[in-house]
Amino acid sequence: xxxEYWRWKEYNWKDPDIDxxxxxxxxxxxxxxxxxxxxVVMTDGELFAYSNMRTGSDSPxxxxxxxxxxxxxxxxxxxDIHYAVGTGYGRINVPFADRAITEIACHGRGxxxxxxxxxxxxxxxxxxxxxxxxxxxKGKVQEFLMNDKCAAGTGRGMEVFADLLEIPxxxxxxxxxxxxxxxxxVSSTCVIFAKTEATGLLRQGWPKNDVLAAYCxxxxxxxxxxxxxxxxxxDFAITGGxxxxxxxxxxxxxxxxxxxxxxxxxxxxxxxxxxxxxxQTLAVKEGRVSA
Amino acid sequence: MKANYGYHDGSGDFFITIDSNLCTGCVECISACPADVxxxxxxxxxxxxAAVKEEHRKKIKYSCAECKPVDEQPPLPCVSAxxxxxxxxxx
Amino acid sequence: MVxxxxxxxxxxxxxxxxxxxxxxxxxxxxxxxDTEGALKKALQAASGEAGLEYTEADYITATGAGRKDVPMAxxxxxxVGAAVRGALHFFKDARTVIDVGAxxxxxxxxxxxxxxxxxVVNEKCAAGAGAFCExxxxxxxxxxxxxxxxxxxxxxxxxxxxxxxxFAESEVVSLVHAKTPKQDIARAVHDAIASRxxxxxxRVGLEEQVALVxxxxxxxxxxxxxxxxxxxxxxxxxxPEYAAAIGAAVVAAERGLKASEGGENS
Lengths: 291, 91, 266
Ligand code: SF4
Ligand code: SF4
What we know:
The structure holds three protein chains of three kinds. Chain A is built from eight helices and ten strands. Chain A is an alpha/beta fold. Chain A folds into two domains: about 10-115 and about 270-285, Nucleotidyltransferase, domain 5, CATH 3.30.420.40; about 120-260, 2-Layer Sandwich (Nucleotidyltransferase, domain 5). Chain B has one domain (about 1-90): 2-Layer Sandwich (Alpha-Beta Plaits). Chain B contains three helices and five strands, in the order E-E-H-E-E-H-H-E. The interface of A and B includes residues 142, 148, 193 and 278 of A. One iron/sulfur cluster binds near residues 32, 34, 35, 38 and 77 of chain B.
């Protein structure tokens, strides 16, 4: 197995221009995913600080680590936080959370903040799942679909191909365009059968890049089918690890006939950001801070 | 909100769509389902609605198999039980 | 009467020679890139063993995904029909035939004449076929032929959460890391696939007796799990992998007979 699928660094960030001591409503959203965890701190509706780290084997500990790292050097402590929301796959295991909210709702709300109120359709392709979320101008989810059963159409499927072709995962996008002519997409959806198909193509003498291109466009086809089940309404945005793979993204937007919005922040924090935004509202609603 | 529970895999599309704008929370579908696939949840927007249980979402094609014999498929119990028509199956 | 059945699969080509309703020889050749060459090779191997040339056969029937690409065949038969006839050749009271190969699983209900009443196919997802077992055996680093027997040593039921063969591989690896005994993992794998096959078969309506054919019918671990799930006995013919080719040969013999009778009458 390849060492790491989506290469990204663990890091934290804070806005030096914000003085949290003046804030009336301080909230946090923590997204504990199967691969990575993020914590986002918000002060009066503004993004103040965040962190992004790998999820360890223990969910509560991962949540605490992410929070502590986001709070590092800010002078803030857990006691200063008015409301905390946990989200993601490990959301019920966030020890300091006041409420757990699904990643779908948080992702929708986070994307609304990140891309602005015109965003309607969000495609999120992670390492182990693929989601399509449709939101209104407030970021409220109108329709969603989540596919976490099948590896086809997830980062994991791409990883299997990177292994097979012995190509570093982050080079796939670029290499898949170094071809003479766009090949027919791989016909099998199933990753296991697609692998067999690809082995056959290599044996027939296909260059590796052509096989990659055939897989990228097959993956784009599958994802387009999922998006179309929910319906594509503009504006359209792509988040998650696959957003970094141009081989899939370009083929996908071409098939849809759409361009994807450019994000203002790292899209990996969308879920945690949405959590912090929900927390802002809930803190007022539950009387923790005055409106 | 329309929730699509289920999946797409090599063998096809298997989704149960439940529309929370239509679901009245009457619980009829839950008692109608012979395979204990559905439950009531309070969703993220505080609506009490029917949903497909987590443990069935990745194998819904198999969970619903008994309601879908290949010869002459009778109306699905959950769909018939739902008066406002909030439940739709994709397959 | 000498008839030949050809099962033109995506991976393998199987040929069976039938003489007076008895299987006299069989051959399996990997399809590879040169399918035409492989087909000839398989035909020659099987007919050679029976002491004849394949051109001497009275009738040839082809089945399998590539059945249209068998120029020497007199006609063809669907895969479902062929599997049923192959199973009924050995067990005439079988009414449900389960056929699980590497790439697909099928459940068929048939009548006493071997006519198909209903069938379901599970294809294009490795999780519902033999490829699932192969991938899991590899993840567990157990040779495929030992995987089934290993499963029988387990007396514990542990659940497998992943439904997808790709995600299940990772689950197997983490179970190994968690020091779960290999036999229990093997059983979990066979239980998982058996339960998928069972719910598929229930859609056609299970009727006894039940016959199992296809490559997975060699796997004792799967058979054990399937019996437990179906709560009934499962009959397995000799050479279960050849069931479709045998079925095609049986049908070829019938058709050959009819053709020659028709010829005499006219
Ligand atoms: S189609 Fe293949 S990749 Fe998808 S769930 Fe089935 S086994 Fe997994
Ligand atoms: S189809 Fe049958 S098993 Fe599936 S949810 Fe409806 S009532 Fe339940």
